[in-house]
Amino acid sequence: MSEGENKVRNIKLTCPICQTEKEIAVPEKVFAQKKFGSIKIQVPPGAVCPDHQFIVFLDPKGLIRGYEKIDILMKTQPEKAKAPIEGKIGLKRLINTFGLYGVFNLIHAKLFGYSGYIIRDDPQDGLETQLNEFFDTITSNTYSDSPEIQFIEEKKYDDIKLKNNALLIDAHNNILQTPWEEKMEFEETIVKKALEIIDEEEQRVLLKQDINNLLKEVEHSVKILEDTKEIYDTELIEVIAKDLKAPKMSKARLNLIRKFIKMNISEDLAAKIKNKVQEFLNFL
Ligand SMILES: [Zn+2]
Known about the structure:
This protein is of the alpha/beta class. Helices cover 40% and strands 19% of the residues. The strands form 3 sheets. The protein has a 7-stranded mixed β-sheet, covered by helices on one side.
C-alpha cells in the first residue's frame, strides 16, 4: 500500500439524538472514489455516543449533508435463538456482520437490481454464497434476476473494474457508497418487523411476504399503467386502494413502486406516473 492510501480525514460528527460530538477518521480513499455517488457512514452505538446508532451522509468533499436515525434497537444479549438453518445465513448474523444499514442497503440493491460489492480483508468462504442466497430468496420476483453481490479482496480492490451504479460496502461495513439517495424506510420497516420474531426461517418468510405485498402492488400498477396514457400519482394511489380494497399507500411507497417498474420492468411505463409538483417545477 502506498502512503497516500493510509491517509485519513477527521470529521466531526454530532449524534442526531443526543447531540454528543466526536471526531471520527474516514479513509481519504473513500473520497477519491467518486463514481459511486453518495457516501453514507453507519455509526454504531459507542462510536460517537454510547447509546445511539445513526447514519451520516457526506458529500464527495467530506462535508456533512445530513443525518438519519435508525430506530431499531438490537439486543446486545444473544437471544436463545433456534439453531440456524443448516448451511444458510440468518438475518441476525447478517446484521452482526454488515450492520442494520448495510442489510437495508443490500435488500435495496437486490430488490431493484443494482450490482453490489463488498470489500473484505479476509474473504470468508461460503459467506458470499450464503449472503446471495438469503437476499435472492427474500427478493425473488418474476420480473428480473438481480446481479450477485460480489466480495472483493481489499488488496485486489484497485485492480478490479467496478460497475458504476453499484452499492459498495467497505471492509469494516461502516462506509457505504450508494447510487441512490432515498431513505431506506421500507427496508427498515420490514427488517424491524422480522426482528420481532426469533425463528430464523420465519424471519425469512415474513421478509419475503412483505416484499411480495409490494410486488403485488407493482403488478397491479403495471396493469393500470398499461391501459392508460398517463396518471397522476395521487390518482394512482386512489385507484390501487379501491381495487385492492386496501388503505391508501404513502407517496414514499408509490415512489418505490415507480422505481421498481422503472428499473425492472419498463421505463416508459414508469414515466406514465405524473406528479403535479414536478409538473409545476418544470413549468417554472
Ligand atoms: Zn447519542
